[in-house]
Design a protein that fits this description.
The complex is a heterotrimer of chains A (449), B (350) and C (313). With 449 residues, chain A is an alpha/beta fold. Chain A is 45% helix and 11% strand. Chain B has a domain at 124-306: MetI-like fold (Orthogonal Bundle), CATH 1.10.3720. Classes of the chains: A alpha/beta (449), B mainly alpha (350), C mainly alpha (313).
Chain lengths: 449, 350, 313
């Protein structure tokens, strides 16, 4: 859960300090002594290699240390990467590891760093990125790992959807680590019961609107918690509704640039209807505050990726199946709308052998369970032993394995290349100003031109 | 030139005196004896720094804007052309018409430079927003600063405390102020709407309201930086000789009239010096928008050139096009600089 | 410095109307106080939020003190966000100090020298040079990001020359080269405005004094050291405070040049503080923001006065 990141920040320095044997608790302890620890950290950084590849001369053994850049600098993401690295170092104590959390969780920030390093022909070993079409962003900089990493074990055990997303123009270049599902509808059980709504009976986006009306009529709660200061929540809501209304075929035509304007517009109109049931101050709050409304019983529904459940996990007396629950977003049953993170392999790699060892490890079911237990998402492999994950994750994992299809998310970078995504974001930034479905639909269809 | 120092300077520059440190006893205007050279240790190192980093970088950026650079490897400088500018300024007339108020020109046709798979939007909308934001922010900031300065200039108690308080927001980072203003503009609980509703009006959506977005951003910046304008104006007010006020009073001028006729004209220098610094702050509005709208998509009615530039360069990897937008931004900055420098030059204040 | 001011003269014309006078004074103070509240509320709101237990934070009335049982809906009190913020931002604060002190002092000093060389020593062409300085003030930073990255990472061998040196010297670490690059950049971009501020001041210096010194045979540099520099102290206060704030709060250059890692400055650490996919920890964010703002707040509270006086000088 996010709110207990009590100064527990992994960094390259502290990881190196522990040299493989360090556990999460020990690492947290290293950071404990506020200002005074700077000296210690500095001397560590000094001894073990300098960032940006200039320390290549100093490392021991025949393997160069891995330079892993990621933006999980706090919260559950930080705990998850910590668990993954710990597991990796137990399995491969001979591989040196230089993990570098990029300060600032903003993903754009990390991409900027990568961009700068690629411009100076100094790529890291690997970094945290969305797979799928986002790979096009640094396309030429990646190298195939079809031979060394994507062995039969991986190709046989990843489901088709995630496997497609691991490829750049048909070649495997990255290893997906986790899946967050986008087509969820979370709800506060007592609020929907008070209103007499049964979420499991809803079967289309239009039903969600009627349910919201019923909640609005029968309770004081906000029917649909949503934030509108940034575009991302609205984009992912719209893509979910589009998937529900247009089906997998309609959704795929859109992401292939052959979208039907009428379908796009109809999904937007549904979002406009839903927006009547947003909190009055949706434009001033962010996702956390919207999610808190559900937890406090001030709101009934929230549409979000399953990271929303991460906040529920950490709240006492707010349990899955009792105080909160989740249904597949009405109309999208049979689909598991994917949002993934992955580690790609850069050409001109500063640590070819070590990186491939690490990526192979990330492709194992054990590694993915370690990571996802902390992250709140599910493993992309179909054969993982998920008994260590919580009940909600296990239910999601069942849904995933039984899904007819695993379409890629637009908002989360899998379905369209970054330039098109920027256009789509721009269309939604306008949509949030005027809620004009017809104009936005045209802009969305034109995003591919 | 009314400045008496000019006279001294002229004599100094003609001087062929023996200096204690000069070493040269040459009576002519030898190269080493010129004042430009003698004073070079003072101005040359800073000038080289500025020249290299500021102007060198600008020139480099202009060259980049002529390439097709898309972020990977090194830019290819062998094939330079202006197609990025053609795309950015597509249809100057339609473009201008589309943004000017009360004209309601149609949409502008986007073009596709040869390197791009997708068409790229021209920059008219964000350029217009940039102008509106800069002008609106500076004018309101100066007005509020002046009003505050006049109030503080009343021999009040605790003047230092008030002055410091008014200046404090300037010390805060945008991470704090953006979150705070999101809260201030909240439709239900935000103070702005609490005031509006208590006056008997209906609550107003501000943050995502296309008509109020840009003013709201400008207002937040005014709040943050008007303290600086106040300080500068206060200094300006105090520099006006008392005799001017007395003369006006004897003439029987009203307070308002006195301020308009006597005070304002004498605040020209203060206004100009405040304006310079405020412009620098206005150019940093990007950081605020970025924090407020959690990313570089503030929406069409608040999109400025800076958000546009970063979006193209970092999100789309269209580095050359990003550089093009940066050059446009720089040219717009020149439109501020040139009249400023010219008027200063005319008045002999440069 | 406090001469009789406009409205005092004006109120003088209303002698006898003591009631009116007091009423005006009261109105004046009320307006001033309202404005003070207007400027202070955000800082107060941030402060209250930063002392709230993250689990009890609702965002409904963030300006109320977090005293849950006493004030419903305000959240429970906790100092945890502050200690966490100090832990997380510790190294960033140190790096920021390493950056801001030399960068501020250097840009102030070089700005003063440039202004002197271009103002109090007269020579043909100086206006042209000065114009370039002034125009440099208005350069939007976005316009130079790409070249700056290329310059520090691909053109100048600063990193490779710095690393061996760093290994020999005590207290210097290899990653400090990024801070050196950042210092140089900030000095270069701060110079134009520093020069402008100093030049405005130097134009007002007494001619007689400088002429007298010159007639005594003092050299250009001696006049600077003995006369101009001591007289610039109020202006140094202004320039230092201005530059300190600008450099301390800068994020764009830091992102471009430091990028990430050991040399990251405090504003970089602040960006992602308390943000994760499952939610934002607002108390931690606000505590972090205030921790990061402490140095500038201290500077303004204690030296704001000198700033105001320097601007007036």
């Amino acid at each position: 859960m996010s709110k207990d990141n009590k100064g527990k920040r992994f960094s390259r320095r502290t990881v190196l300090m522990g040299a493989g044997a360090a556990g999460a608790a020990g690492l947290a302890g290293c950071i404990g002594g506020d200002d005074s620890n700077d000296g210690g950290n500095n001397s560590d950084g000094d001894g073990t290699g300098n960032q940006s590849g200039d320390g290549s001369g100093g490392s021991s053994g025949d393997m160069q240390p891995i330079q892993l850049l990621h933006a999980w600098s706090s919260g559950d993401g930080n705990a998850a990467i910590g668990a993954l690295i710990e597991g990796f170092q137990e399995a491969h104590p001979d591989v040196e590891f230089g993990e570098e959390p990029v300060n600032g969780a903003a993903r754009g920030n990390l991409d900027q760093v990568i961009s700068n390093r690629l411009q100076s022909n100094d790529p890291p070993s690997t970094f945290q990125t969305w797979p799928g079409k986002t790979l096009q962003k640094f396309g030429d900089a990646y190298e195939s790992i079809e031979e060394d990493v994507w062995t039969d074990d991986l190709t046989n055990n990843y489901l088709e959807g995630p496997k497609t997303q691991a490829q750049l123009d048909g070649t495997f270049v990255t290893v997906p680590l986790n899946i967050h599902r986008i087509n969820n509808l979370f709800y506060n059980v007592s609020v929907v019961e008070e209103a007499g709504v049964d979420p499991t009976s809803l079967s289309s986006p239009a039903d969600v609107v009627s349910a919201c009306q019923q909640i609005s009529d029968n309770t004081d709660a906000v029917p649909f918690a949503q934030q509108t200061s940034g575009t991302w929540s609205t984009t992912q809501l719209w893509e979910t509704v589009l998937l529900a209304q247009a089906g997998i075929d309609g959704y795929e035509s859109f992401i292939n640039g052959e979208g039907d304007k009428a379908q796009v517009q109809s999904a937007l109109e549904n979002v406009v209807e839903l927006s009547e049931f947003y909190p009055g101050d949706s434009s001033s709050i962010d996702f956390t505050e919207a999610n808190t409304m559900v937890m406090e019983g001030d709101a009934a529904f929230i549409h979000q990726g399953d990271w929303a459940a991460g906040a529920y996990r950490g709240k006492d007396g707010f349990n899955y199946g009792e105080q909160w629950n989740q249904v597949t977003y009405p109309g999208t049953s049979g689909s598991y709308l994917l949002n993934m993170d992955s580690f790609p392999y850069f050409a001109n790699n500063p640590s070819p052998e070590a990186t491939k060892t690490f990526l192979s490890y990330c492709g194992t079911a054990e590694a993915q369970v370690l990571f996802n237990a902390e992250k709140g998402s599910i493993p992309p492999r179909g054969d993982a032993d998920v008994s260590q994950l919580d009940t909600f994750q296990q239910d999601q994992y069942d849904d995933f394995n039984n899904a007819d299809n695993q379409p890629p998310s637009i908002q989360h970078g899998l379905a369209v290349v970054p330039a098109i995504k920027t256009n789509i974001d721009a269309a939604f930034s306008g949509f949030l100003e005027n809620y004009d479905a017809a104009t936005t639909a045209q802009e969305l269809v034109d995003s591919f031109k | 030139m009314r400045n008496p120092i000019a006279l001294l300077r002229r004599r100094w520059s003609d001087s062929d005196d023996v200096r204690t440190d000069g070493g040269t006893v040459d009576s002519g205007q030898s190269f080493w004896n010129r004042d430009s050279v003698r004073s070079a240790p003072f101005w040359l190192p800073p000038f080289l720094l500025v020249g290299l980093f500021v102007y060198g970088a600008i020139l480099w950026n202009i060259v980049l804007s002529l390439t097709d650079f898309q972020g990977l490897g090194s830019p290819d400088y062998s094939n330079l052309d202006f197609e990025n500018y053609l795309a950015a300024l597509a249809d100057p007339i339609d473009g201008l018409l589309s943004v000017l108020p009360f004209v309601n020109g149609g949409a502008v046709e986007a073009r596709s430079p040869s390197w791009a798979q997708l068409s790229v939007e021209p920059i008219w909308n964000s350029a217009w927003n940039t102008v509106v934001l800069m002008v609106g922010f500076t004018v309101v900031c100066l007005a509020l600063g002046l009003a505050l300065a006049i109030l503080v200039d009343h021999k009040i108690r605790y003047e230092n405390t008030f002055r410091t308080i008014y200046l404090l927001p300037m010390s805060l980072s945008f991470v704090v102020t953006a979150k705070f203003w999101l809260y201030m503009y909240n439709v239900e609980t935000g103070l702005i709407n609490v005031v509006i509703t208590s006056l008997g009006f209906g609550a107003v959506e501000i943050v995502q309201n296309p008509d109020l977005k840009l003013p709201a951003v400008a207002f937040a910046l005014v709040w943050q930086f008007s303290g600086y304008a106040m300080i500068v104006y206060l200094a300006g007010l105090r520099a006006i000789p008392t005799s001017h006020f007395e003369a006006a009073r004897i003439d029987g001028a009203s307070t308002l009239r006195m301020y308009r006729r006597v005070v304002l004209p004498q605040l020209r220098t203060a206004t100009v010096s405040a304006l310079v610094v405020l412009t620098v702050f206005a150019l940093k509005a990007f950081d605020f928008l970025f924090s407020m709208y959690s990313g570089y998509q503030p929406g069409p009615s608040a999109d400025i050139l800076a958000t546009r530039m970063v979006r193209e360069a970092y999100a789309n990897q269209n580095w050359a096009y990003g550089s093009t937008i940066a050059v446009v931004l720089f040219v717009m900055a020149l439109f501020i600089v040139t009249p400023y420098i010219y008027s200063q030059y005319q008045r002999g204040e440069l | 410095m406090s001469q009789p001011t406009a409205t005092d003269d004006q109120t003088g014309t209303e002698t006898g109307l003591l009631a009116g006078y007091t009423l005006r004074r009261i109105t004046l103070y009320v307006v001033l106080l309202v404005m003070a509240v207007f400027y202070l509320v955000p800082i107060e709101t941030g402060l209250m939020t930063s002392f709230t237990d993250p689990d009890s934070y609702t965002g409904q009335a963030p300006f109320l003190p977090p005293l849950e049982p006493l004030i419903p809906g305000s959240g429970t009190f906790s100092a945890q966000p502050w200690t966490n913020a100090f832990d997380i931002l510790g190294q960033g604060l140190v790096n920021s100090l390493i950056l801001v002190v030399p960068a501020t002092v250097l840009s102030g000093l070089l700005g003063s020298m440039a202004a002197y060389g271009l103002t109090n020593v007269d020579w043909r062409g100086q206006v042209g040079i000065y114009m370039l300085f002034v125009a440099g003030i208005f350069i939007p930073y976005q316009a130079v990001l790409v070249p700056l990255t290329q310059f520090w990472y691909n053109v100048v061998p600063l990193r490779t020359t710095f690393v061996p040196v760093a290994e020999v010297l005590p207290f210097i670490h290899a990653y400090h080269w990024k801070l050196v690059a950042l210092i140089v950049t900030h000095v270069a971009y701060g110079l134009p405005i520093c020069t402008l501020l100093f030049r405005a001041h130097y134009k007002k210096l007494s001619d007689e004094m400088l002429e007298a010194a010159r007639l005594d045979g003092a050299s250009i540099s001696r006049i600077y050291r003995r006369i101009v520099l001591p007289l610039s102290i109020p202006m140094f206060a202004v320039v230092f405070i201005y530059q300190f704030t600008q450099i301390w709060n800068d994020l764009l250059f830091a992102l471009t040049i430091v990028q990430f890692g050991d040399a990251a400055v405090v504003t970089q650490d602040l960006v992602g503080l308390g943000v994760s996919q499952s939610g934002t920890n607002f108390p931690l964010r606000m505590a972090g923001a205030l921790v990061a703002a402490l140095p500038t707040l201290v500077v303004y509270v204690f030296f704001g006065d000198k700033f105001a006086r320097g601007v007036a000088a």
